[in-house]
Design a protein that fits this description.
The complex is a heterodimer of chains A (117) and B (107). Chain A is mostly beta strands and 117 residues long. Chain A contains no helices and eleven strands. The model of chain A has no long low-confidence stretch (mean pLDDT 96). Chain B has 107 residues and is an all-beta fold. In chain B, the strands form two sheets. In chain B, strands 2, 4, 5, 6, 9, 10 and 11 form a seven-stranded mixed sheet that branches. The chains are: A mainly beta (117), B mainly beta (107). At the A-B interface, β5 and β10 of A face β4, β5 and β10 of B.
Chain lengths: 117, 107
């Protein structure tokens, strides 16, 4: 059974950094395309970043140059390194496994990131 | 960037009714269109991909149609568990983008 568990969220000051983790079970992270999708409080969904099995990465313009997606094959875990955080980055961050092209078929429960002084 | 626009923002319906949600893309996405359902406090759930193919385990009362720039999600007979927010998403081009959502509420 596919299972995704995010961690690493919390309260951080503007300009600070956080690293989110997404521990996967039931499948191999490195063999799939994996993504981060976020949702600001009371708002809609926003795609953040994707890493393909071959290692290619993609970022939303809003996070490009500040966020880095990566994975640790030995731990079967996906990461999102977030630097230079801004209040507008406040959101629940979901990791998702891609299925059927560019869709998000499996989701974690999300981890809340709050950027505030 | 492809902008996805959903309408209406809110729909008030009764159980048993048939409902159609709309999604429009600012440029053609072919059939690279997905629909998701999200209930309060939960992660989204994939319903439809390829504009019209139901994901695993999705009831037959959910159906999708459309291609190019105009898409619809139809629920043939609303069940109590269907009241939620629905999002469309294009995966034709980077950056992938979602619509702003349609909230389906009980009348």
């Amino acid at each position: 059974e596919v299972h995704l568990v995010e961690s690493g969220g919390g309260l951080v000051q503007p300009g600070g950094s956080l690293r989110l983790s997404c521990a996967a079970s039931g499948f191999i992270v490195s063999g799939n395309y994996m993504s981060w999708v976020r949702q600001a409080p009371g708002k809609g969904l926003e795609w953040v970043s994707t890493i393909y099995s071959g290692g290619d990465t993609y970022y939303a313009d809003s996070v490009k140059g500040r966020f880095t997606i990566s994975r640790d094959n030995s731990k079967n875990t996906l990461y999102l390194q977030m630097n230079s955080l801004r209040p507008e980055d406040t959101a629940v961050y979901y990791c998702a496994r891609g299925v059927f092209g560019g869709t998000f078929g499996y989701w974690g429960q999300g981890t809340l990131v709050t950027v505030s002084s | 960037e492809i902008v996805m626009t959903q309408s209406p923002a809110t729909l008030s319906m009764s159980p048993g009714e048939r409902v159609t949600l709309s999604c429009r893309a600012s440029q053609s996405v072919s059939t690279n269109l997905a629909w998701y359902q999200q209930k309060p406090g939960q992660a989204p759930r994939l319903l439809i991909y390829g504009a019209s193919t139901r994901a695993t385990g999705i009831p037959a009362r959910f159906s999708g149609s459309g291609s190019g720039t105009e898409f619809t999600l139809t629920i043939s007979s609303l069940q109590s568990e269907d009241f939620a927010v629905y999002y469309c998403q294009q995966y034709q081009n980077w950056p992938y983008s979602f619509g702003q959502g349609t909230k389906l509420e009980i009348k």
